[in-house]
Amino acid sequence: MVVAMWQQLSDGYMRLLIEPWIYLLMVGFVWVQYRRGEIMERTSFGVKVNFADLEWMISVLYGVVGGILASIVFWLLHVQVGLVEIVSIWMIIVVLMLIDVRLTCIAYAGPLFIVAAVILQWLASTSGVLQVLWLRKVADAPTHFASLIMMVGVLHVMEGILIFMGGWRGASPLFVESRRGQVIGAFSLQKFWAMPMVLGTAVGVVPFPVVIGFSTLTVGFIPKHAARLAASPLVLYGVLVTVAGLLARGHMVWTILVAVFTLVLHELLYKWVQHKEMNAAPLFVRPARGVRVLATILRSPARAVGLQPGDTMVKVGSMNVNSAYDIHFAIDQNPAYAKIEAVDLRGETRFLGTPIFEDDPHQLGVIMVPDEHAREYAEIYPFSAARWLFEWWRRRKTIGGTHGQRRRKRQSRQSQQHVVDKKSTVIDS
């Protein structure tokens, strides 16, 4: 059994090495998402809080390991799909990406394909309206609906494990508006993993890379707690869907019902996590005493001594601090070394100390929660590939239009000068 499994995995990954284009495209998509986070940090605070390239490399490594483990589980569960199903799911994922990036999940693409395939099969059997080549292929292809449902379940178990292990890494701080209109601190957690899986089909083993990930905004929890809060329901959801897919094997009606249940339950789970996050009491608000830490900058004294999101600095040196100005003034009193008294979220006091060098960030490298004077905040809206392409096209059009206007004005001046020269020549003659 081990030899057969090894043969399948080696054949599949050899094909992936020969034709890696779709996987590389997904890896590029993941890199773009992390770069967006870094740009958002620079726009909001003027510095980057995380290394996008480092987070991307860690994500790629975890995705490769997760893809291999998922492929082993698929082999043990005898999961098989057809080439038509694989290509169709990729096509659905691309369409969903144009609507909202968070929908680029097989929990949406898989059940949607099952429902669409059932409708197309019904239309093919009752009428001859299917003239489009690919629709006819979907209608005529052998179905592996239960395998698709089990695939959704296994991938969500893997997703929950990956989120639990490091879903808080690379969390981006930002200021948002609370339900009461107050500007508060928050964290945007976005993690994506490109998973290079291999699956058995009727024509052999084929690569099937997919992207899994999650995106959430937390205002009431530190990033690590928020990630683990989201991980546990995902693992439970994945186990439930996998078992449902196993039980539905060979029963078409039950398989369709399970597919719809999988889609609806995933959306309800997402809404529940969002509701729990947004209705939690805001954590990153100005305390009655001291300065609360929202985040620390890379390679800064604050990060070196272990200041964490949610910690409250009450003293720097021998001075009580209640604002950014107080911290700056206290550091000026002893610019070579900073002694910090901080209180964590459990109410425990810690005494920290760190040397300060000339090239260290201003104010220890701490991003503080917004005070009552803060007015600027981030507007959160669903991100889609279509929106990004439209904004890119509009910027290009604006730049092109500006260049075009300048070019037309320059040509007009040259044309006018040419006319004047011709008139002068005529007059002179």
TrEMBL record:
UniProt key word Lyase: no
Key word Transmembrane present: yes
Membrane-traversing stretches: 12-34, 54-75, 81-99, 106-124, 144-171, 192-214, 226-247, 254-273
Residue stretches of biased makeup (Basic and acidic residues): 419-429
InterPro entries membership: PDZ_sf
UniProt keyword annotations, A-Z: Membrane, Transmembrane, Transmembrane helix
UniProt feature, compositional bias: Basic residues: 401-412
Superkingdom as given in the UniProt entry: Bacteria
Region Disordered, residue ranges: 401-429
Protein name: PDZ domain-containing protein
Natural source organism: Sulfoacidibacillus ferrooxidans
